[in-house]
Amino acid sequence: MSVTLTERAAQQVQRHLAKRGAGMGVRLGVKTTGCSGMAYKLEFVDQAAEDDLTFESHGVKILVDPRSLAYVDGTELDFIRQGLNEGFQFNNPNEKDRCGCGESFRV
Predict the structure, then answer these.
(1) Are 10 and 3 in contact (CB under 8 A)?
(2) Model confidence at 101, in pLDDT bands (50, 70, 90)?
(3) How far are the Cα atoms of 3, 10, 21, 43, 80 from residue 16, in angstroms, in the given order?
(4) Are 36 and 105 in contact, with CB atoms under 8 Å apart?
């Protein structure tokens, strides 16, 4: 079981944490929403919750709650720039389908 970051994503997380002046990493999870059923949650965190599972990739800690791990196990988080847009991209091998707007997914 694991969740990883590309080097580009890790650099982006480190830049954001430095800008904030605090933080230990990012928390990746899922929430029920959208037309396909689930959406990713990504937030910068200052401390781990008691039941968080911790992974480390390129020097960045990734926290995942146990409920979400079944849906995001094996996911690689990347940071992409396309034209004027930039953001995190979730490369999740568990995804079976994604809604047309790209906001939600199904496993």
Answers:
(1) no
(2) low
(3) 19, 10, 9, 11, 15
(4) yes
